[in-house]
Every structure is written in structure tokens, then in C-alpha cells.
Write a structure and sequence with these properties.
The complex is a heterodimer. Chain A is α/β, with parallel strands linked by helices. Helix content of chain A is 36%, strand content 16%. Chain A has a 7-stranded mixed β-sheet with strand order 2-1-3-4-6-5-7, sandwiched between helices. In chain A, α1 crosses α7 and α3 crosses α4. By secondary structure, chain B is α/β, with parallel strands linked by helices. In chain B, α1 runs parallel beside α6, α3 runs parallel beside α4 and α11 crosses α12. The longest helix of chain B is centred in the middle third of the chain and has 21 residues. The interface between A and B is large, with 35 and 39 residues. β2 of chain A pairs parallel with β9 of chain B.
Chain lengths: 246, 355
Amino acid sequence: MGKTFSKPKALSDNHTHYCPGCTHGIVHRLVAEAIDELGVQDRTVGIAPVGCAVMAYNYFDCDFQEAAHGRAPAMATGIKRVRPDLIVFTYQGDGDLASIGMGEIMHAANRGEKFTVIFINNAIYGMTGGQMAPTTMPNQRATTAPMGRDTAQTGMPLRMSNILSQLVTPAYVTRQAVLKPQQVNKAKKAIKKAFEYQVEGRCFSFVEVISTCPTNWGMTPLEALKWAEDELLPYYELGDYKTPED
Amino acid sequence: MAKVLMKGNEAIAEAAIRAGCTNYFAYPITPQSEVAEYLAKRLPEVDGVFLQGESEVAVGYMIFGAAGAGERVMTTSSSPGVSLMSEALSYIAAAQCPAVFVNIVRGGPGLGGILPSQGDYFQATKGGGHGDYHLLVLAPDGVQEAVEMTMQAFTLAEKYRNPVMILGDGMIGQMMEPVEFRDDLKSEPSNKDDWATNGMSTRGSKKRNLVKSLFLDPAELNNNNLVLKAKYDQMKREEVQFEIYNDDTDYQVLITSYGTMSRVCRTAIDMLKDEGIDVAMFRPKTLFPFPEKAVYDAAVKESCKSVISIEMSMGQMVEDVERCVKGQRPVEFYGECGGEIPSPEKIIEIVKGLI
């Protein structure tokens, strides 16, 4: 019997440093599958953020640049503008994209930059050890919100897909999750579509992925999946928020 | 080629294109916005890339991205904007990417003013951003030299895979002078296939390239810093540029000055000469690498009794001059930095006080 399942070519052989139960590994694989299926590995440049995915370049086998905190969309703009033939994607977390990098993501999206953003939303800062993120839920505990997020002081969690979909410039904006196999399959389709729009030179594409952080949430992997399903998905509703056909 | 009369900012913009740089990202700021305005019109004519970024912070990373992908790229800004770009400068230097940054310096600190200043000497030569890095800093004294240095900057940036800064000022950016564009200063782009993220298919390789500055392993980080240090040492050996004016005399005073300020000092020296007083001027053209030995040699000439650094600052380059003169002569300072440029008469008065 021949080989029926294998690692995508666009992934390297390195073991990841991600914690048990973290969903980065799933999303890395989905991105790599999309790159493989579109046959663009040899002209793809990824941008690593600051955060848990800062060393994403160790797990992908394609050209990579490493940005400063939040600046990945500006860096991607620089690459894509001078080399429109390259396939460029950023892979950013919620602290990176929705806090320090809010300016860069808004303007890149509004200019309609023809690259792809993979946005991992796990409602917390992972790499620095569980601090409050702009996406942290009301009353959710974080090391910098030890009594839980007080929305009277810090406002409500930012819903980036909702916000970006309000821009008039055509784009593909979708929110997906990877908490269940069915969701993973849908997320796979969305990520591939996001890269397809880029390959076609059509529009800016943005895939938000609701993810887990068992370590910093203080949960087991299974508890984390359930908590995300129960607490995050009602607020962060899944689905396409904007397509270039709109 | 015939000379044309051009404003400094526009001449710098045209020089970049003549040097083969057709990628430009910038954010408007006085007194350098004419560079962006000129290139917004000119770059589409040569199928180039012009983009007005949303901030100098973002522009710094647009430059980083484009440079990392192996393309010639430039930005221009002025003091407060360069402060915002300093984060990216640190990253670009650490990741060893070539890029050209032009600072048309205005008065500071803070919002300061919009008139010429030399208050960014420390920022340009000693860091600005975090960590152990240096820019290669070129300081033109007029529009012609600004054009030549802009063209050379791309060659130097690629030779060292390091950001190069043109440190001008509002006077150089705003004034008009006759300029000649010398085609001989244009260099062929270097081959960047062994490091740039230009796509594996572009370079016909199966090996991917990484552009990064994170080295969590102490030995690796130390090694990256040693690699950078070796480049800065090579710059000190190979790239020092300077000029000494009126040094074939028994000068009693050595002025050290650069950029626009040196033009005024030159006039003052000519006027003093008419009075029978000989004063020389040492003008660094590279601020990093600083002409350490040359300024020492000029200062310790038998006839020279004292050295004075004259700057449009409150005393910045003077610290390098003091360092290099090593106490062999007294090193004085005179500076103004509100945007008014000290007059030749004022310089004559100050210099006479030293004799």
C-alpha cells in the first residue's frame, strides 16, 4: 500500500517549541498544506511576528523574515510592493496584531495590500507569559489582570475581523477556529482561499483563527478546547465577514 | 553632463533613481517632503515603487522588508521621523540588510523647529535604536555632495549589508545649487542570493533564506555582534572620508565642522586669511566611521594651538573630536541650534578669541 498521508513539503522536520495542546501546530500545517497545494513554496516569503510564533521560520521550509512586534504587515508591504510575484504571508498573534500592531494591520488592509494575514487569536499573550491581550475576555484572568479583565478600565475585547470588514476597500476577511475536526476542515478551506486570492492578485486576505493557550489559561488541553468553545465563540462568531465579491 | 539648478531634496530624489534605486517608502515631514513629492511623480515614469506609509514606524519596516527581499530601497525623513524609524534601523543593522536612510535634520529635541540643525549627530553616529550597531553616516556640505553621497550610499550599503544614512540638514534640503549627476557613481546591484528572501525559484535554489535578528543562544548572539563589529572595523579602515581646508599654512587654530556649518566656516577662514590670520578646517565627510587619526594629525601640527568644534548643535561632534585629539590640544566648542546658522562674523569673533 502506498503512502496515503504525509507531512506537507512546506513544513520542516523540526520539532516545535509549542506547548502541549497549543493549536499553532494545526494552523502551521494548514498554511503549509495551502502552500503545497498551490505549488508556491519556492516563491513564498513568510513573516514571523513577535510572540509564540516568533520562531515559526524553524517550522516552515520557505523564505522567511522576522519582524519587530506588530510590524509584520508593514514588512510584508515592503516585500510585496517591490516583488509582487512573491507570495507573502504574515503569521501574527493577538498581542502583536491587535495591540502594538493595530496601525500597521489597519493601513495594510485599507491599502488592499495583496498579501495574506494569518491571525491567531487565543485571547492572551503567550510568549511573555499570560498577560492581558486586547482580545482577552471580560473577567478572564491574566497575569496583568489578576482579578480578571475589568472592562470598565480596559474596554471590551477587540474583534479584528468585524473591524477590518468595515473597511470599504475590497478584501477577504474571515474568522475560523481549530477546536474541532469540522472547524479545522473549514479553516483549511479559508486559508487556502486566502492564498488563492493573493495568487490571483485580487485582494488583501485575512484569516482569524480562534485558538487555545492551555498553559497560560491554566487548563488542560481538553479544558482549553471546551473553554474556547463556550466562552470565545459566542463573542467571536465564526464565518466570512467580507469577501471581494461583496 | 551639464549642470542643472536643483533644490537639495529634489536632487537627492533624482540621485536615488540615477543610482538604480526605484523603490521608495516615506512619510511626509518638513523640511524634506519635496523628496516624496518629487518621487511620487518621477517613480511611476521608471516603473518604480512609491508608497506613502502610514507612519515612520511602518515605513522603517517597509524598508526592512524590501531590503530583506534584496531590492535597492530608500526612505527620507527628518529628525522626529528618524526617531520613529530608529527601531527598524536597529533591526535592519542586526539582520544585515542594505538600505539608505536620509535625514534632513531639523532642530530638536521634541518637535523642535523646522529650520536646519545638526542636533542628530549623536542619534546618527552612536545608535538611536537599541543594541550594538552603527550606521555608516555620510555628511554632505551642499547639494552636489548630497547627490554624490546618495549615489555612493547604495554601493556602500550593499558592500557592508548595513544601513547607510545621509545626514543632511534643512538648509541642504531646501537650498538650490547647480548639480551634476555623475553616471560613474552608479554601481551594479550586488548578488544577494546567498541571504535575501527573494524566493527560492528566483535564485534557483532549494535552500531557503532567513532574514532575522533573534538569537536566543548567547553564543550565537555574541557571534552576530562580532560579525557586525568586524564590519564596523572594516568601515574604519576603508571608508573614512574627510577634507582639510587651508592646511598648507601655519594655522594657529583648527576648526572642526561638517555639513552646512562647514560652508560658513570656510567663508570665515577666507575672511580671516584676508586679515593675515591662518585658520584651518577639518571637515569629516563620514561621521561614522569618524576620521580618528586624521583629525588627531591635523590637531597636533606644531603651529596649531587649539581646536574648536563649530556645530549647529549644543556640542555633539565635539565629543568625538576630544576623544581623537586625546588631550594633546585644548578642544573648544561653539554652537547654535535654534535654526539660525552662525554667521561668518560670529565665527571670526569666536576664533579670534582663541588666538
